[in-house]
Amino acid sequence: MKPLITLALCACTAVGGLAADATFTIDATHSAGQVSPLLYGLMTEEINHSYDGGLYAELIQNRAFLDNPTAPAHWSAVCDPDSAVVLALDTTNTFNDELTMSLQLKVTKADKAHPAGVANDGYWGIPVQPRTRYHAAILARAGADFSGPVKVAIVSDEGQTVYATGTISGLTAVWKKYELTLETGQVAPTAAARLVITLDQPGTVWLGLVSLFPPTWNDQPNGFRKDLLQMLVDLNPKFLRFPGGNYVEGDQVETRFDWKKTLGPIEERHGHPCPWGYRSTDGLGLLEFLEWCEDMKAQPVLAVYAGYSLSGVHVNPGPDLEPFVREALEEIEYVTGDASTPWGARRAKDGHAAPFKLTYVEVGNEDWFDKSKSYDARFTQFHDAIKAKYPQLKLISTIGNDQPQASRVHSRRPDMMDEHYYLATDEFVRKSPDYARHYDRSGPEIFVGEWAAHEDAAIKPWDVGARTQPPTPTLKAALGDAVFMAAMERNADLIKMQCYAPLLVDVNPGARQWRPDLIGFDALSSYGSPSYYALQMFSRNLGDEILSAESAATPVQGCATRDSATGEIIVKLINPQPTAESVKIEIKGVAALASKATAITLAGSPEDTNSINRPRNVVPVTTQVSGLQPEFVYTLPPNSIVVLKLKARP
Ligand code: AHR
Fold it and tell me: What pTM was computed for the model?
């Protein structure tokens, strides 16, 4: 059934003699539809150094020397006036066929007091934490002129403080992996540090890959940064849409997310250029995405490459597309097949014997950009092949109601359609009351696979100008996010899943390509934007029954749901105005309401925001309210988002 939101002018007087500007009427006599239990999830891709330098906990930037074929980016020589070293990239002397570059260190002068070698500056610094064990792995070989030890240390930028140190020895002419632990003492946290590798005698050494990990989430090898994963878990996500976004498409067919190349030990992953202007190590590959879902107790929503890339190239439907359809089928088998299947066996060999649960597969990304208009035929080809082998899977078309009817898939009926909305707050405030009200309830389910409010219509997220703005949004944007989330909840019988995008941003100016983003971080710390907290307030307070709600005479927007197990009624209200608003809340069909309830409020000035230095400037505040009856007046502060958790008896 379609939930109802209407705006009408009326004046009302509040119970208890209080005057209210407006009413918010909730019909609790019956459920107006089931809330999709998958409603709140996350969308992710490699953008803004989300993975490399972010969630993927590797600390060495350009660990395999492949970022720039002409110079060892992020690596620099270490020597003093009494030592000397020459660094050179080498394509002839490499660990294997995947790591097609090595770094040669030719130390011509060094002794114990004057070592020479190379340093890596990390992803905008190497984070040093007190009493912490770092795991280093180094692929190395030596020339005939060297047999001594190699010192590995985490050292302050200016070279004066050694935070942790270790040694590898026994290097020979044969490539080998050396592993060691570097442990810090009681030091003050800092990111003004580098990883330094030095020799204390002349000789030649080649490095094929240098990796350094801090402790990871659940101590998983090749794992995730703990603080960032915790922030994601705290959003209570039910699904993860990956690997994009534009990242699944790549700029060219050759630079798509080629999942087979992201499997196995990191020394077997060549990496690839990501469409956001830097190279991905592919350290966070297909299995890591799936394990990330597992860590969050969320379902994967797997996007497969569908023959369209960002530069505008497409693969013709028919025989040309067949290899890509096969790749998608194999990918699904890698995710869901048991060990008796070839790709299920490969997953087991990679370390995960149990198949993953998969319900949704998205075919491509934003295929409305494909000027050749081949998506209908490409979708059809994927659809028929996937449904033939996996009839239980639900397939998502990347063209939804936000695009003209003519561009949508018509040869097959998608199970779900993906819509994307990047709008200014004012636009969300204007459009949300009507959002999805008139959608055909018998049509495909809806996935809002990317959305975010930005503060100012003049600065679009993809404009270069946006990159000069703070990377994460203000409270003003969070108000836009909240009115849209309320609209999606009102329509959560049809909107089965939704996710904000992008999720993560390294706040260093050189690291980012897009704003606004939900969570900001640097090498040492992370914080949630006001939008993060708005999302958390919504996703952690979700009932399972939609209750119809009507706003009257108010700029306040909102939604109501009920938890059928407890009877709790959850009311979400947003006041996007700079003045307080008193709203008379009428709940029909409720005999009694506990006089006390919990209110969670996010409020402030529109320009208020959070940052690395002020991570908790705008956060939700939980209070108890009392004196409630089935009709009561609630005054919303200016610029506020409020969740009321009411205990009701029918
Ligand atoms: O979220 C950033 C980008 O916006 C996504 O990669 C793309 O799908 C959309 O255009």
Answer: 0.95
If you take atom 4 of ligand 1, which residue's CA is the nearest one? 245
Q: How far apart are CA 247 and CA 276, in angstroms?
A: 8
Give the helix ranges, DSSP H, for 390-471: 425-431
Q: Is the predicted pLDDT of residue 12 greater than 80, yes or no?
A: no
CA distance 273 to 249: 12
**Residue 554 near residue 583, CB atoms below 8 Å:** yes
Nearest by Cα to 425 from 505, 487, 482, 503: 482
Per-residue 3-state assignment (H helix, E strand, C coil) for 122-152 = ECCECCECCCCEEEEEEEEEECCCCCCCEEE
- How confident is the model at residue 56, as a pLDDT? 98
| Whole-Å CA distances, 223 to 152, 194, 227 | 22, 21, 12
Dist CA 15 CA 38 (whole Å): 37
Q: Which residues line ligand 1 (CB under 6 A)?
A: 45, 47, 244-246, 365-366, 450, 501-502, 514
CA distance 282 to 52: 8
Q: What percent of the chain has pLDDT over 70?
A: 97
Strand-pair category, 133-142 with 176-183:
antiparallel
Please report the pLDDT score of residue 601 as a whole number.
98
Strands 239-242, 42-43: pairing kind: parallel
Contact residues for 645 (Cβ-Cβ < 8 A; gap 6+)? 541, 568, 569, 570, 597, 598, 599, 600
- pLDDT band, residue 5 (cuts 50/70/90): very low
Distance CA 62, CA 53 (A): 10
What confidence category does residue 19 fall into, taking pLDDT thresholds of 50, 70 and 90? low
Atom number, ligand 1, closest to the C-alpha of residue 43: 1
What pLDDT is stored for residue 18 in this prediction?
A: 52
Q: Is the separation of the CB atoms in 489 and 546 below 8 Å?
A: yes
| Per-residue pLDDT at 557 exceeds 70 | yes
Inform me whether the pLDDT recorded for 3 exceeds 80: no
pLDDT of residue 218: 98
Which atom number of ligand 1 is nearest to the Cα of residue 452? 1
Name the amino acid, one letter, at 636.
Answer: L
Q: In sequence order, what are the residues at sequence separation of 6 or more whose Cβ sits closer than 8 angstroms to the Cβ of residue 287?
A: 262, 263, 347, 350, 351, 352
Among 242, 514, 517, say which to mutate for ligand 1: greatest number of ligand atoms within 8 Å of CB.
514
Closest C-alpha residue for ligand 1 atom 7: 245
Report the alpha-carbon distance of residue 52 to residue 369 in Å, rounded.
27
Q: pLDDT digit string (tens) for 431-460? A: 999 999 999 999 999 999 999 999 988 878
pLDDT above 90: percentage of residues in the chain: 93
Rounded distance from Cα 453 to ligand 1 centre (Å): 14
Report how far ligand 1's centroid is from the alpha carbon of 125 (Å): 28
Distance 44 CA to ligand 1 centre (A): 10
Write down the pLDDT at residue 13: 27
User: How many whole angstroms from 376 Cα to the centroid of ligand 1?
Assistant: 21
Looking at residue 48, its amino acid is N
